[in-house]
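Look at one record.

>
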Amino acid sequence: MQVERPNIKLVEASDDVGRRINMHCKACGNPLRRLARKGFLQLKVYPKFGYYPWECPICRTLIMVRKQYIRKRRSVHEPSAN
């Protein structure tokens, strides 16, 4: 008995692509949806490198997207703008 493995693509997202509204499937053009992590690789390995699972609901293509934009955080020691 052979277990069929899904075809997973690793993709790096740029600033504008990493946001949910701009994520589209390259195969069919439909918007992608974010999936919950499943399995050892998605739960333990991919998070260490910043990869998140996304899927096209129409053609069922699974893509692991890595965010590259950095959140802007305010420093505790930064003076306020009063």
